[in-house]
Amino acid sequence: MSAVNLLDFDLEGLAAFCEQLGEKRFRATQLFRWIHQKGATDFEQMSDLAKSLRSKLQGVATLTPLTVISEHVSSDGTIKWLFDVGQGNAIESVYIPEDDRATLCVSSQAGCAVGCRFCSTGHQGFSRNLTTGEITAQLWFAEHTLRKRLGTSDRIISNVVMMGMGEPLQNYNALVPALKTMLDDHGYGLSRRRVTVSTSGVVPMIERLMADCPVALAVSLHAPNDPLRDELVPLNKKYPIAELLDTCRAYLSAAPRDFITFEYCMLDGVNDTPEHAQQLIQLVKGKINCKLNLIPFNPFPQSGLRRSDLARVQQFGRELQDAGIVTTVRKTRGDDIDAACGQLAGEVQDRTNARDRMLRQPVAVKISLPKPGERHRSGH
Ligand code: SAH
Ligand code: SF4
């Protein structure tokens, strides 16, 4: 039997594993606390754990973290880590400190099979799902590395957003135990309101999440009508907007917040006109409790898309606000280290030919291409 990675378990899973070893539940709780609250890397460190259990664990269990390939620190304090997940794949996590919170943006897959037009990960295609251990290990690593660096035993990370590489709800079975570890009082003790799953709209899995582990939900909308959303977020062909909104409404009955966040990536000349704003208002006003989060598009070389200028974003936001829809514009963080939304690219051994597919199917909606010589990267 090969050794199991204890980072793969939520507390229930660890309790079941300990039971197989003939150990009581409170031993599992102790072990779980050593791992997640104290960041232990070695069973010998776990001083209040019975010697007999420590020696039982040797050989049957490991604590295998992720291997760091690189770390980049932005001028605004954002940190991006690139982790090796084997066989030529690498994933990224981003730490975003702010005055009143510190957020970790976590990846769920090596690549992504949804293939959104405006997303760098989407352009890279899909290699594989991460394991629970690989999802949890991103938080474990960031939390305990930063505590050591800052010389504190206080909690550092207050919020987690599943907004790194990958579509979390297409890796549901691995995701849920990782979320449970984040929420567990013996783990990271984060409140449900401070853990956000962001999804491009995998309707049946939103329904399951509602029952299994209702955390805050962000839905990547990006378009106010089906033809445009079909182009930008191909999953829309399977789960069109009306169905998605029905499911979001249902989710609210279990959600830890009384609204759903809709993310809307502002693409110059594609989805940012006053008509789009009006359609969006028609779609949601009085129909669902939501907040709109406008994300200035973060360009990357192959996208062929441009960021809407600030005046456009502000005008769009004003129209929504005037209609009574709470709207925020996401601050772009860490873009000097390519750590902003949609720029996480890691390294993906694509098994889906995404790049070719996207080149063969040019977007039918009107897209203004960058003028020659214009920089793709934004500068703030
Ligand atoms: N797959 C999930 C979560 C990861 S993407 C999802 O799509 O929701 C996290 C957020 O970044 C999503 O709202 C996504 O639409 C947005 N995003 C992707 N590419 C982007 C880009 N180039 N610029 C700005 N936001 C982007
Ligand atoms: Fe996948 Fe989300 Fe990127 Fe779309 S935006 S390709 S769902 S990671």
Folded structure, characterized:
This protein is α/β, with parallel strands linked by helices. It folds into two domains: 4-62, DNA polymerase, domain 1; 67-359, TIM Barrel. Helix content is 33%, strand content 18%. The chain has a ten-stranded mixed β-sheet with strand order 3-4-5-6-9-10-11-12-13-14, covered by helices on one side. The protein has a two-stranded parallel ribbon with strand order 1-2. It has a two-stranded antiparallel ribbon with strand order 7-8. Strand 3 and strand 4 form a beta hairpin. Helix 1 crosses helix 2 (25-36), helix 5 (132-150) packs parallel to helix 6 (172-183) and helix 10 (274-284) packs parallel to helix 11. The model is unreliable at 362-380 (pLDDT under 50). The structure holds S-adenosyl-L-homocysteine and iron/sulfur cluster. S-adenosyl-L-homocysteine (SAH) binds next to strand 10 and strand 12. S-adenosyl-L-homocysteine (SAH) is lined by residues 118-119, 163, 167, 198-200, 220, 263, 265, 295, 297-298, 341-342.
